[in-house]
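Researcher: Quick test of sequence recovery. C-alpha cells follow.
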C-alpha cells in the first residue's frame, strides 16, 4: 500500500443524498417472486463444487489417456488444476457465465498441469504438454457449457430470482432496469431505485430513497443485490456509496466500473448484455479474512504480552512510584460498528475529573505530565496494555485508531467519512499513524488514510505497518 494511491476520487467526505422516498410519477413495483431463501445458497455451493469436480475429472482423464507411469500423476494433476482455478476465481458464481471468458484461463492452467506431469515423467516431450492441455481444456469447457446452461435455466425461474436495488436514476440506470426485466437468465428482479442526487425523470422504478437509506432499504425490501450504476453517480459520491455498501448483508455489483475509483480484480469482471460490471468486495468483508486476521491478532498479541511482561512490570512500577496508586488508565473508546469498549493505557497523568478525560484533547506539553509519563508517551510504551484489549477482541493490532465517543460525534458531523472507519476493528497502530497522523493532526486526512487501508487491506499491509511501527518506536528519541 502507498499513500500516493489516494486520489481525488477517494473522497469519503463526499456528501450523501438524504432525499426522502418518492412515489408520485414512478412506475408501479413489479410483481415480486415467491422466492425460496435457500435457492441462492444452493447455487452458490453446488455450482463451484460441480465445476471443481469436472476440472479434476478432466485433468485426471487427460493424464490417464497417455498411460504414463508416474505414481500419483493423475491425482496430482487434479489437485493442482483445481487449486489454480480456485485461486483464479474460476469457481465463483457469475451473472453472465461465458465459455469465451473461460477459454484462456482454463487452457493456460491445463497447459501448466501438462508441464508439471511432463517434468515428472522421464522422456516426456512437448507432445505430452500439448496433449494434456488440449484434452483437459476441452473436457473442462464441455462440462462448463453444461453447467452454464443449467444455471441460466435455473435463474429464469422467478421463484429463484434475487431481488435487486438499482442505485442511480438516470438513463443508464433505466437501461439496466430494462435489461434485468427482459433477461431472466441474469436471475435479478429490480424492486426499486435509489438516488444519489436529485431524482431524474428517466427513473424506470419508484425512487425509494437516497444512498444514506441503503441499509434500511436492503433490510426492508429483502434485497439480495445492490447494483450501483457508475454513469449516473458523480465520481466523488461513487466512492462514498460503495463504502456504505461495505456493511450491507448483500452483494454489490458495480455497473461500468471506473478503475480509478475502486480497484476490481480482473477475475471479478464480467458483462451484462455488453455492459461491463464487477462484483465489488473488500478483503475484510470476507468471513475467512476476518477470522484469519483475528487469529493472527490473538496469537501475536498473546506472545507479545508474555515476551513484554518484564517491560510491562517495569513500566507499572515506574508509574506507581511517580504517581501513586492507579497504574492503569481506563477510558471509553468507540470500536467496531460504533460499539464502545474500555481502552487500557499506563497512566501518564491524572485528569481533574471524568469529563476532562472524555472531552479534552491530549496536550503534548501538559505540565502535569512527569518524567516517567513523558517517557512513556514519547516511547509509546503507555500503549502496551492495549495488547490485552487485542486479546479480548476489543481491538486489532492494526486498524484505525479508536477515539472517544465525544470526539467521534464531533468529527462525524464535520467529516462524513469518519464513521466509515468503524467498518473494521480499531487498532493499536494504523496506516495513518505510521505516516505521522496522530494526536492533533488533520482529521480528514486521517479518515482518508484509514479508509484507504480498509479498502486495500492485506496481510502484507498489516505486516508492513507493524514493522514501520516497530522501527518508529526503536528509532525514536525518548528524551
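Model:
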Amino acid at each position: 500500500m502507498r499513500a500516493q494511491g489516494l486520489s481525488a476520487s477517494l473522497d469519503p467526505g463526499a456528501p450523501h443524498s438524504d432525499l426522502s422516498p418518492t412515489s408520485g410519477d414512478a412506475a408501479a413495483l413489479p410483481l415480486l417472486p415467491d422466492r425460496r431463501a435457500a435457492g441462492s445458497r444452493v447455487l452458490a455451493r453446488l455450482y463451484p463444487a460441480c465445476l471443481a469436480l469436472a476440472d479434476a475429472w478432466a485433468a485426471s482423464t487427460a493424464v490417464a489417456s497417455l498411460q504414463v507411469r508416474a505414481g500419483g500423476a493423475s491425482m496430482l494433476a487434479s489437485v493442482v488444476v483445481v487449486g489454480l482455478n480456485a485461486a483464479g476465481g474460476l469457481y465463483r458464481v457469475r451473472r453472465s457465465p461465458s465459455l469465451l471468458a473461460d477459454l484462456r484461463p482454463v487452457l493456460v492452467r491445463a497447459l501448466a498441469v501438462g508441464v508439471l506431469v511432463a517434468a515428472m515423467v522421464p522422456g516426456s516431450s512437448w507432445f505430452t504438454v500439448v496433449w494434456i492441455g488440449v484434452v483437459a481444456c476441452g473436457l473442462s469447457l464441455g462440462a462448463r457449457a453444461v453447467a452454464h446452461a443449467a444455471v441460466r435455466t435455473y435463474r429464469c425461474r422467478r421463484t429463484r430470482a434475487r431481488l435487486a436495488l438499482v442505485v442511480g436514476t438516470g438513463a443508464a440506470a433505466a437501461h439496466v432496469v430494462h435489461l434485468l426485466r427482459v433477461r431472466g437468465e441474469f436471475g435479478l428482479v429490480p424492486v426499486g431505485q435509489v438516488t444519489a442526487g436529485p431524482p431524474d425523470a428517466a427513473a424506470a422504478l419508484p425512487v425509494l430513497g437516497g444512498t444514506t437509506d441503503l441499509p434500511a432499504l436492503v433490510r426492508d425490501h429483502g434485497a439480495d443485490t445492490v447494483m450501483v450504476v457508475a454513469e449516473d453517480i458523480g465520481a466523488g459520491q461513487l466512492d462514498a456509496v460503495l463504502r456504505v455498501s461495505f456493511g450491507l448483508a448483500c452483494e454489490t455489483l458495480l455497473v461500468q466500473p471506473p478503475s480509478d475509483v475502486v480497484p476490481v480484480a480482473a477475475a471479478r469482471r464480467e458483462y451484462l448484455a455488453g455492459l461491463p460490471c464487477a462484483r465489488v468486495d473488500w478483503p475484510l468483508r470476507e468471513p475467512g479474512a476476518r477470522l484469519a486476521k483475528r487469529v493472527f491478532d490473538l496469537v501475536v498479541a498473546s506472545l507479545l504480552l508474555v515476551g513484554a511482561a518484564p517491560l510491562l512490570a517495569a513500566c507499572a512500577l515506574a508509574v506507581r512510584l511517580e504517581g501513586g496508586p492507579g497504574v492503569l488508565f481506563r477510558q471509553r473508546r468507540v470500536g467496531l460498528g460504533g460499539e464502545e469498549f474500555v481502552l487500557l493505557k499506563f497512566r501518564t497523568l491524572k485528569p481533574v475529573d471524568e469529563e476532562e478525560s472524555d472531552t479534552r484533547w491530549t496536550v503534548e506539553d501538559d505540565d502535569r505530565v512527569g518524567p516517567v509519563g513523558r517517557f512513556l508517551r514519547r516511547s509509546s510504551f503507555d500503549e502496551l496494555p492495549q495488547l490485552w484489549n487485542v486479546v479480548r477482541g476489543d481491538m486489532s493490532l492494526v486498524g484505525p485508531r479508536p477515539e472517544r465517543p465525544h470526539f467521534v460525534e464531533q468529527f462525524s458531523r464535520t467529516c462524513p467519512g469518519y464513521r466509515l472507519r468503524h467498518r473494521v476493528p480499531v487498532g493499536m497502530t494504523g496506516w495513518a499513524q505510521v505516516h505521522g497522523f496522530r494526536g492533533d493532526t488533520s482529521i480528514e486526512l486521517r479518515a482518508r488514510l484509514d479508509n484507504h487501508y480498509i479498502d486495500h487491506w492485506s496481510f502484507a499491509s498489516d505486516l508492513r505497518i507493524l514493522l514501520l511501527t516497530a522501527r518508529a518506536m526503536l528509532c525514536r528519541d525518548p528524551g
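The radius of gyration is 27 Å.
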